[in-house]
What does this fold into?
Amino acid sequence: MDLGSCSLVCGDRSVRLSAREFDVMRHLFQAKGNVVAKALLLEKVWGFDSNAVENHVEVYVGFLRKKLRSIESDLLIQARRGLGYQILVAEEEGGC
It folds into this structure.
């Protein structure tokens, strides 16, 4: 993740992130593989007094998954039922 350009980078491939996508991804990276609850993402990214619901988190995670695939990254965003999301590295070799 390139903080300066708000983009995901894998080798010579990169994709820009929206401000919300960037914030969701940043919180997942900062968790260092630990599960991040949807409620926490809602609070930190959308704000405590926002009208956003958990579905907003699911939609943005979907956007991020597509962008990770588009740059052929070996990072995965795994849903942990009833808990939240975590970043994992796929078991394939040669990725980013």
About this structure: The CA atoms of residues 25 and 64 lie 8 Å apart. The helical segments are 19-30, 38-46, 54-70. The beta strands are 7-10, 13-16, 75-80, 84-89.
